[in-house]
Every structure is written in C-alpha cells, then in structure tokens.
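Amino Acid Chain and Its Fold in Token Form
===========================================
Structure side: the spatial fold of the chain, written down as a series of whole-number tokens.
Position: the record begins directly beneath this header, with no further notes in between.
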Amino acid sequence: MNNEFKLRLYKKTGPEKGNLDKELFYDSAKELWTTYKSLCRISDYSINLNPTIWVRSGEEDWTRYGEADFAKFFLEGKRQIDIISENVKYTGELCMDLEKETIEAVWELWFDVDRYFGTDTDSDDVTWINFYTYWHSNGRVTAMYEIDSEETTKVIDWPLTDKEEEFFLLKMEEYALKKEHCSLENLFQFEKEYDALCDDAGNDDFYLHKVAYNFLLRTNYERWDGTGEMPVTFNKEYYCTYRAGIPGGILRLSVTEDNSEWKYVISCIGIRPTGEEITKTESIPIKANNDELEYGLKKLISEFKETFSEQLYCYKGVSYPVGPVTKETVCRYKDDNNYIRGIVKVELSDMIENDLEGFLDLISEKLTGSPLLMDIGYEPVSVFEEELYLLVSGDVSGILDEEQNNEGDGNE
C-alpha cells in the first residue's frame, strides 16, 4: 500500500486555533498509530485538538476513524495488504436467506490472508480460512471469515472499511448479473415473491396472475422481444416450479430456443394415484406480455384438469379411458379409422338379461353415452364379485356424424 493512512494535525494557538495545520502520511497502520500515540501524550494537545486518523477510501477520498475503530480495523497485523488490489474471486452460488434478508457470497482469496486478517494459518497445513460477504436488503454489505481445521471451526465477524464495502458490493452485483441475470435487489425480491407463491399455491386467477408476473420478471426483468442481440439480463437458463392446485400437480416454467426463436415454455405435470404421469406443454413467444402468458397458463391448466380428471384403466401395459367418455375424449382417443377402445363396467345380470343386440347397445352407451357405436368388439378384462370389466372397441363414425348434424341443426 502507498500513503493509505494519514494524520491531520491542527493549530493549537492563535487566531486560527483549531484549523488544519498539516497532514502526515503513512504506508502502514502501525506507523501511524505509533506517531498518533506519541502526539497524544504531548501535554500541549488538548483533547479537542488531538490529531485525527484518516484512511484512504478512494483516489481522492478519505474516511475518518476513531481510535477504537482504527484499532479494530487496522492494528494487530490486520490489513497489511489492500484486499481490493489482490486476487479475489467469487465461487459457488449466491445463497439467499429470506428470514435474515441477506444474500451470501463465498470468495476465493489468492493472497497471503494472514497479512490481511491478522491471523496465523500459514504455519499450520491443516488450517485454512473461508471468507463470506452478505448483501442486506437495506443495501449494506457485511463480512465474516471462518478459521477451519480438521477438528474445529471458528467464526469471526469481519468489519469492512467503506472502500471495501463498496468494492464487495460492486463485485456481488457483478456476480448476480453474470449468474442470475439481475441485480441483487431484484434477485431478493423475486425469490421473496416466489417463496410467497409457494406458500399460496393454487390455480385461481389471481394466483396465476402472480405466477406469470413473477416468472416474466425473473426471466426477463428488462423486457426483450426476442429480436436483435440478447441482453445480459435475459435469463435463458431460468426455470421454476409452482404447485398447480391439482392433486400431485405442478406447473413448470422455463425458456427454450426453437429454430432460432426464443420461447417461454409452460408445462403442467400430474401423477395419478396409479403412478401414471400426465403432462401437457405449451410454448409462448418471448414477445408475449403478462396477460398473454397468464391466459396461456389458464388455458393449459383447464385442458390439463380435463385430461387429468379422466379415468384410465391400465390393461396389458396400455391405459384405456373408462366409460362413459365425453365427445372430446372420443376425439382424443379415436384412431385414424375412427375406432376407439375403452373400458366399461357391466353387471353379470346385464349379460344374462339382454340378448346380443341389447347387450351391444348397452356397452355402446356405457362407453360413449350413445347407442351408435358400430362394429363393436369386446373382451373380458377382470371380474370383481358381480361386476365385469370389458375392453370394448368400436367405430365412432356414427356418433361423430350425429354430433355434426346436431351442431348444423342448431346453427340454422
């Protein structure tokens, strides 16, 4: 360090008593402290005219320290080197503590840490120092270090000078932008809102509005329309999950690139009691606004709930819809030849009391809600007491034609 410390001496007599007399500069805290103590012992210095202690905090800026603070910050072998000029690298993740309202950063210090902290670890091969800084929601930065060995850990609060606090604040902001694509303050607010959303899970309109708003901000807090150069604030690696208000269901939101076009991707995932996973996914262009994303969420969840609420029966490794099914389900499960296969439950008495034609009409009704299923086939799946489960197949062309005719009649 070069001229990092100074004493200011003041005129002791005459009309300019109390005005600045001269400044003495020092390269080390120890040199300054020795001179300061000797001057304070001189009898013609009144307590109000004692020299004052200053530490450089910028090119032209200085910060004044009282005796106690100067001793705590700079004496006992502390700060013999300037950490701002040394090799300091961030490592790991930024860790959030919402209760303490802090964000923690861990640092690698590639210099002689003993000369900075006033410690003695160099003589012990199994002792090392870990250094942490903490951004607080009021904008301040504090620090601590750990002296770790194979057997013990000692935690020490480390006071930062104004210059060091400014340095680490800038370093942490730089790291947040590089790692999280946003400022520390924004990162804290996003995580706080996300945590509140997790506690307030559901699928009501206001909840989905908050989900959409939080996700768009967290991904792209300085809005980008997907054209031109991608801004550093666009978080292309971000994804999050929210509960969807559906049994076993979650919402997953992320971003992806598809043929050079960036999109938001929303997925709804649910696990049936049988263990079967149901997923629906929809992509929305990056240029979408809050309302468009919110509408996409509502639409996706509505469709998902319809799919999820369907009763399925797994037979020989294949899941079949359980009748009676809706016309939407008929359209979803029919093959290219308009044939559908599904499970129906009948009573044994139904088979006994009906002739073949009556029985076929019955299972047509039980599967599709209509007697118009054609070319019906069936096979037994299982029997439980007086109930028989059948795998029924048939041509739904007649049912679909009737639906179309009914819609046509209604439009006349």
Notes: The first strand starts at residue 5 and ends at 10.
